[in-house]
């Protein structure tokens, strides 16, 4: 008997519930990855994620080969191709992880398969619910987190020792980034994709960063977060395994790290209950957003004249990744100071982020824009206050905005304060907007003034 293990955002062998279930139910398994043309057609296959995905697929194939198997690659519509492989191999079952986006839900309905309950989240969407009639998800993080913490965690599944693939299943070559996404060029400093790279990064960070994570998670120049988000997005690492390993330690850093992983689940359960929140306001504020091409371009290129915002936007272009504090402040700048629709910013992030994720990206954007689950939807992050607090010596800005590197200390945050001739020596733009004007406009628009 044959079962198909359909890989999607779970490109790993350790603690892989879908592969584990497939191997338990059949003697032979087809580890299948379909390069889904629907994902590309939806504009979701961008150079940065394609590069990481190509690494992850090559690593998965190598891992399977080391266990006597291999990865079977097909290109096309994921449902059609899966059915084709099932017909060719006589597979009686398809195992795949439950998804949360509207796209994943439609795919599952079309496949009509038994889903392996463990999806991408630690606690699957819907597993914990608020009390009250008709409540299908938590809209506020703190009460969600309390319930989430009380949930038991399944134990970690070992990586399989061997995988027997039926002979003669046709496979395409493991695709390169160029094949996955022929247009565009990846950012110059992307992380290496794949399970092995992810495991190495986690092991290193466990030694060097986890213990004092709670004190350093907002430190912009310190760059002391785990940078595991891309591995979690593609499922090269299992969040269940990370929580088990982190919880084995008693330091406050481990607790804070686990709390961040709960945020990931929180957004997944919101999106699963409200798939329209990927594009529609979760809680509309009746915003009549502005759109000024020059301002949006300045924001995208990191030339707004606010050094800390520009540093963040340039890091995003260069690395396809951004520190959470920087994500928050650049998103607040776009949606609240410039008063531009969060969807414009979310799209730009999805074009570049390796960890770009429907649930986390769209719902974090909505959180910052105040259309989402933030219980203080009208708070505005002043970039100058943020800069002084989270980059007090200006090191983060000097790293990413080299044309200001001659400005010492916190002076780098306010180049507009320099005298005329001094100012002229720097090839750096004037602020695109006055912060007080932006704030007033936002308050008026939201009826707060
Ligand atoms: P760490 O601080 O080490 O945290 C560990 C893990 O917890 C992360 O890898 C991530 O999986 C999870 N996590 C941490 N913070 C959050 C959060 N606020 N929401 C959900 N999960 C979280 N994260 C994505 O994975 N994909 C996105 O597309 C994405 N877009 C975002 C857009 C905006 C506007 C904002 C404000 C945040 C966004 N985030 C997104 C959340 C967060 O910024 C990143 O997960 C984090 O910066 C990744 O770095 P790290 O792995 O070093 O995080």
UniProtKB/TrEMBL annotation:
Residues 1-130 form the Photolyase/cryptochrome alpha/beta domain. Pfam families: DNA_photolyase, FAD_binding_7. Keywords: Chromophore, FAD, Flavoprotein. The keyword Flavoprotein applies. The keyword Flavoprotein applies. Belongs to the DNA photolyase family. This is DNA photolyase family protein. It comes from Streptomyces decoyicus.
